[in-house]
């Protein structure tokens, strides 16, 4: 079956770095997305990886290894506003999105 | 975990026809469901919030007469794209908020429906 795994919850300290992992098993692969969702709001797009390697966008970076079925989202210089849920989603061979359950990130002062 | 399904997974239709997309929460009840549209490699765009037993709430710029939403039961919401045109071609995703869940911010997403209008 198709499966996306990510931790349910993580806690980190303001100013620190946190890495949120995502592993996947899907029928085919057409890209991996990371979304940020604040409480009560729609998800917002963070990154899209389709080739192996690291994509950096400011304080956020996303890494993909297709051979390992693995991705991570790296958040640097954490701010209180980064407290949110982070969703990993993979587009399979049918261009369907397979969603992870999301990782709730709690930032402490 | 909670599962949300969508049907159909993909649909190709002629310009001018109407297309109905179903969103179902399979193992939980959802008072609130959301409909999104996703452009290639971009963010989800919230179209409307579907409330069971009442009218949907549409986001600014979304035509309510164009995108009809019906949330007839606690497990089913439908989106009908009326008189579809090529510019309506997109990836439509629904999500459902589990009723009574301790974390009210938890939304479960469907796999999406790819609409292509010729």
Question: What characteristic shape of chain A results from the CA principal axes?
Answer: globular
Question: Which range does the strand content of chain A fall in?
Answer: over 45%
Shape of chain B: globular
Give, in order, the helices and strands of chain B. Answer: EEEEEEEEEEE
Helix tally of chain B equals 0
Largest sheet of chain B: 7 strands, mixed
SSE map:
The complex is a heterodimer of chains A (109) and B (118).
Chain A: E1 3-5, E2 9-13, E3 18-25, E4 32-37, E5 44-49, E6 53-57, E7 60-65, E8 70-75, E9 84-91, E10 97-99, E11 103-108
Parallel strand pairs in A: 2-11
Antiparallel strand pairs in A: 1-3, 3-8, 4-5, 4-9, 6-7, 7-8, 9-10, 9-11
Chain B: E1 4-7, E2 10-13, E3 19-25, E4 32-38, E5 44-51, E6 57-58, E7 67-73, E8 76-81, E9 90-97, E10 107-109, E11 113-117
Could you please describe the fold and organization of this structure?
The complex is a heterodimer of chains A (109) and B (118). Chain A has 109 residues and is mainly β. Chain A contains no helices and 11 strands. Chain A has strands at residues 3-5, 9-13, 18-25, 32-37, 44-49, 53-57, 60-65, 70-75, 84-91, 97-99, 103-108. The termini of chain A are far apart. With 118 residues, chain B is an all-beta fold. Chain B has strands at 4-7, 10-13, 19-25, 32-38, 44-51, 57-58, 67-73, 76-81, 90-97, 107-109, 113-117. In chain B, the strands form 2 sheets. In chain B, strands 2, 4, 5, 6, 9, 10 and 11 form a 7-stranded mixed β-sheet that branches. A 4-stranded antiparallel β-sheet of chain B has the order 1-3-8-7, with no helix packed on it. In chain B, strand 7 (67-73) and strand 8 form a beta hairpin. The radius of gyration of chain B is 14 Å and the shape is globular. At the A-B interface, strand 5, strand 9 and strand 10 of A face strand 5 and strand 10 of B.
């Amino acid at each position: 079956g198709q499966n996306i795994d990510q931790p349910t919850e993580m806690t980190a300290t303001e100013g620190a770095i946190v890495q949120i992992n995502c592993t996947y098993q899907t029928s085919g692969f057409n890209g991996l997305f990371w979304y940020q969702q604040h409480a009560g709001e729609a998800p917002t797009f963070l990154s899209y990886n389709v080739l192996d390697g690291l994509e950096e966008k400011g304080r956020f970076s996303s890494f993909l290894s297709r051979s390992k079925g693995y991705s991570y989202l790296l958040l640097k210089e954490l701010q209180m506003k980064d407290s949110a849920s982070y969703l990993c989603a993979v587009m399979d061979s049918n261009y369907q999105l397979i969603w992870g359950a999301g990782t709730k990130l709690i930032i402490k002062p | 975990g909670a599962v949300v399904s969508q049907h159909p997974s993909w649909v190709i239709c002629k310009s001018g026809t109407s297309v109905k997309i179903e969103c179902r929460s399979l193992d939980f009840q959802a008072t609130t469901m959301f409909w999104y549209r996703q452009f290639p490699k971009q963010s989800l765009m919230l179209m409307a919030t579907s409330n069971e037993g009442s009218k949907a709430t549409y986001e600014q710029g979304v035509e309510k007469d164009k995108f009809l939403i019906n949330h007839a039961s606690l497990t089913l919401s439908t989106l009908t794209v009326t008189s579809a045109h090529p510019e309506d071609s997109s990836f439509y995703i629904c999500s459902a908020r589990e009723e009574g869940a301790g974390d009210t911010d938890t939304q479960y997403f469907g796999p999406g429906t790819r609409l292509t209008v010729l």
